[in-house]
Specification:
Distance between the termini of chain A: 11 Å
Shape of chain A: elongated
Number of strands of chain A: 8
Number of helices of chain A: 3
Strand content of chain A: 35-45%
Radius of gyration of chain A: 16 Å
Oligomer: homotrimer
Order of helices and strands of chain A: EEHEEHHEEEE
Strand order of the largest sheet of chain A: 1-8-3-5-6
Structural class of chain A: alpha+beta
Chain lengths: ~140, ~140, ~140
């Protein structure tokens, strides 16, 4: 049994966006009881991550870390057609990844207590991002 | 056909723990011949990786690299409620990832000769970690 | 429904190799209409990534970034049996990952416009790399 749907997130620029609710809804709507929920972002300058969802300072620190690790406008970068955050966004996306699989159990995402699903927008300008959710498994 | 089980690993603190045997057993017990085995850690301060399983110095070097890259007690971090390794553990987890998918072929994990499955505990204190294994595919 | 096949890529040493065509063909040959395509590299010194496929300078910059981040011959590394790029290759592989899942929709890989699938060879010498592709879902 399989169910596929699409989420669209309009970002206001660089930062993290909690999409846990949307992903949980896609699982509930699928009618699947046991299986896997796959989340995929169709872009190369935004990524997905599972991260601590209780204290907002975690997201600030995550952003600070990444900004130091992969600085915008690094003189090493030659791919700068779309500005100083262009290549940095591609590197950040590769380091964090474009897809996630989450177990489905008893018809729900079996996330740990503190695990949230985040879209990470790496470009400074607002973007409209497409996420494809595929739920596969046995009906509940 | 689908099979879901749980592994619990009691860690003695920061370091890598080879869970290849447990994952291989879950695949064998599933009775699935061709498909995928998904491994998922339900925490945000421990992660999973596939890595070289022959020489223990690889794990030491991996730890040294990560400790330099994401130092505990980095003055940049503001999320420090649980101590100097709290935020570092979240960053390390995001960089290495919470889930893996391994092909199943002829009823076994189709890992390469040198690929082992490791749980990476990023907190300094011992923790009890839950891993969900989901095997999906056709019976052998 | 499930289909599993193998791709072999003979690399000429460190660098990225576009395998999008091979992955797309495996999906088309599977006869699956809706589902997921899993790509897995059976090695610990080569990895997989989704990245921008239009401007070749992106791959150059990605390589420059990684070479600075994880330098060959880092004096910190003790696992040096196979030379100065040995341990660096393992770290680079862990940071970028060994497997990817791509949604299948209407019988095709639902990649974004600019997303390409790349094998990243991290060793300096040529290697023969095995990639297992598993497509799972409903027939079209």
């Amino acid at each position: 049994m399989i169910s596929q749907s699409e989420i669209r997130i309009d970002t206001s620029g660089r930062g993290t966006y909690d999409v846990s609710r949307e992903v949980r809804e896609a699982v509930r709507d699928s009618g699947i009881g046991t299986g896997l929920c796959h989340v995929f972002v169709c872009h190369t300058s935004a990524s997905l991550m599972l991260c601590e969802n209780a204290d907002p300072s975690v997201m600030c620190d995550m952003e600070s870390f990444m900004s130091r690790q992969v600085p915008d406008g690094d003189p090493m970068f030659t791919h700068t057609a779309e500005g100083p955050d262009d290549m940095a966004a591609h590197v950040r996306s590769v380091l964090t990844g474009s897809d996630l699989n989450i177990p489905v159990r008893d018809g729900q995402c079996a996330l740990g207590t503190w695990q949230g699903v985040y879209l990470w927008e790496h470009r400074r300008a607002p973007h409209s991002r497409r996420i494809i959710v595929t739920v596969q498994g046995e009906s509940s």
